[in-house]
């Protein structure tokens, strides 16, 4: 009985519920400086608890399902936030979906991948992964990015970097089909391509991952519920903090679009921490599953949602990237191909990806 009471009072249980209460009390209200700081601390706690519960679920369902659960859960909530902001933001939010999705792609494919490769190679000499599965994920991300973020810049049916209604519908359907095909490949037909590379080190356990055995179904179900609560709180509190972020960005003299980058960084924190922890345990493939899966879901779920929302959205919808961002995307794809093909990477490859992320962030501040 004492053990049950102790588990119920664990910080990983209390913090998500506390964050949800904080979200309910602060949603739609103007916060003072003290409350902004308190909400920031609660937000950080919600991120850490989300990582814990995601790992519990991943242990129960195994890979690659665990990575898929976290990536899809975060992305669905992120998409809901984007659509909500676009509906309430008016014409000023015309480029919000593009800015947020591109930021997510750069953070995942360069930030998460770079950190995972750096941590994995520093801890274990080489970061090892399956080139087949990772290459398939990268190809899907590259296709979705090019089709949904680059092609709109060059279409001529409508003025500006956007799609016509028919083009947007085609992109939405193609995105869903590609994402669905990848998920089937990852979880059914070629699941072994997305499993961590075995090193033959350490004792084997029930789930073969080299560490704690899977939790019970009851514990995993509780963690799944708390994971969803924590993710809702993370995204919601990021929105609550956005006015303070906007003020800070404006005071620093940064472009307004940088707000979307900051919010994307906050929303992707759970996946980033989970990926780094997996890499430290010599499970770099899990990190790459999270990174490319999140990038893919960000595009594959956002574009269809925007296509549906465009029925009642007013004003133009800007999806096409500018020249600088297209160059960064092209560099990212080329470097990623060179990183993925060998199936192993050193700290150099990790450093290259992190420099690309730094370039994106610097140019977002100084366009």
UniProtKB/TrEMBL annotation:
<dbReference type="InterPro" id="IPR052946">
    <property type="entry name" value="Alkaline_pH_Ca-Antiporter"/>
</dbReference>
<feature type="transmembrane region" description="Helical">
    <location>
        <begin position="134"/>
        <end position="154"/>
    </location>
</feature>
<feature type="transmembrane region" description="Helical">
    <location>
        <begin position="166"/>
        <end position="184"/>
    </location>
</feature>
<dbReference type="Pfam" id="PF01699">
    <property type="entry name" value="Na_Ca_ex"/>
</dbReference>
<dbReference type="InterPro" id="IPR004837">
    <property type="entry name" value="NaCa_Exmemb"/>
</dbReference>
<dbReference type="GO" id="GO:0005886">
    <property type="term" value="C:plasma membrane"/>
</dbReference>
<feature type="transmembrane region" description="Helical">
    <location>
        <begin position="219"/>
        <end position="238"/>
    </location>
</feature>
<feature type="domain" description="Sodium/calcium exchanger membrane region">
    <location>
        <begin position="223"/>
        <end position="365"/>
    </location>
</feature>
<feature type="transmembrane region" description="Helical">
    <location>
        <begin position="319"/>
        <end position="341"/>
    </location>
</feature>
<feature type="transmembrane region" description="Helical">
    <location>
        <begin position="290"/>
        <end position="313"/>
    </location>
</feature>
<dbReference type="GO" id="GO:0015386">
    <property type="term" value="F:potassium:proton antiporter activity"/>
</dbReference>
<dbReference type="GO" id="GO:0015385">
    <property type="term" value="F:sodium:proton antiporter activity"/>
</dbReference>
<keyword id="KW-0812">Transmembrane</keyword>
<protein>
    <submittedName>
        <fullName>Ionic transporter y4hA</fullName>
    </submittedName>
</protein>
<feature type="transmembrane region" description="Helical">
    <location>
        <begin position="348"/>
        <end position="365"/>
    </location>
</feature>
<feature type="domain" description="Sodium/calcium exchanger membrane region">
    <location>
        <begin position="32"/>
        <end position="187"/>
    </location>
</feature>
<keyword id="KW-0472">Membrane</keyword>
<feature type="transmembrane region" description="Helical">
    <location>
        <begin position="258"/>
        <end position="278"/>
    </location>
</feature>
<feature type="transmembrane region" description="Helical">
    <location>
        <begin position="101"/>
        <end position="122"/>
    </location>
</feature>
<feature type="transmembrane region" description="Helical">
    <location>
        <begin position="34"/>
        <end position="53"/>
    </location>
</feature>
<feature type="transmembrane region" description="Helical">
    <location>
        <begin position="65"/>
        <end position="89"/>
    </location>
</feature>
<keyword id="KW-1133">Transmembrane helix</keyword>
């Amino acid at each position: 009985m004492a053990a049950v009471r102790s588990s119920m009072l664990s910080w990983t249980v209390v913090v998500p519920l506390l964050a949800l209460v904080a979200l309910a009390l602060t949603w739609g209200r103007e916060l003072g400086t003290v409350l902004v700081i308190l909400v920031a601390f609660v937000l950080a706690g919600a991120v850490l608890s989300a990582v814990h519960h995601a790992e519990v679920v991943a242990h129960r369902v195994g890979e690659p399902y665990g990575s898929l659960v976290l990536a899809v859960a975060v992305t669905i909530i992120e998409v809901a936030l984007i659509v909500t902001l676009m509906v309430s933001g008016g014409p000023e939010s015309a480029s919000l979906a593009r800015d947020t999705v591109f930021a997510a792609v750069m953070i995942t494919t360069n930030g998460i991948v770079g950190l995972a490769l750096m941590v994995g190679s520093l801890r274990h000499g080489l970061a090892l992964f399956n080139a087949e599965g990772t290459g398939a994920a990268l190809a899907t991300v590259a296709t979705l990015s090019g089709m949904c973020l680059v092609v709109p810049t060059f279409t001529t049916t409508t003025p500006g970097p956007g799609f016509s209604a028919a083009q947007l519908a085609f992109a939405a359907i193609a995105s869903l089909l590609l994402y669905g095909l990848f998920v089937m490949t990852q979880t059914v037909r070629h699941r072994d391509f997305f499993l961590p590379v075995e090193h033959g080190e350490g004792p084997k356990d029930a789930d073969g991952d080299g560490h704690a055995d899977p939790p019970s179904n009851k514990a995993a179900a509780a963690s799944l519920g708390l994971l969803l609560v924590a993710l809702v709180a993370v995204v919601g509190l990021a929105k609550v903090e956005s006015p303070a972020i906007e003020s800070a960005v404006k005071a620093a003299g940064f472009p307004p679009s940088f707000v979307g980058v900051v919010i994307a960084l906050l929303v992707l924190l759970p996946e980033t921490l989970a990926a780094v922890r997996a890499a430290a345990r010599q499970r770099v493939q899990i990190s790459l599953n999270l990174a490319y899966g999140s990038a893919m879901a960000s595009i594959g779920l956002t574009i269809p949602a925007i296509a549906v929302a465009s029925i009642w959205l007013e004003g133009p919808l800007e999806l096409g990237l500018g020249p600088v961002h297209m160059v960064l995307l092209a560099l990212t794809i080329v470097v990623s191909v060179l990183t993925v093909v060998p199936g192993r990477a050193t700290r150099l490859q990790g450093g290259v990806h992190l420099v690309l992320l730094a370039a994106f962030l610097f140019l977002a501040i100084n366009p």
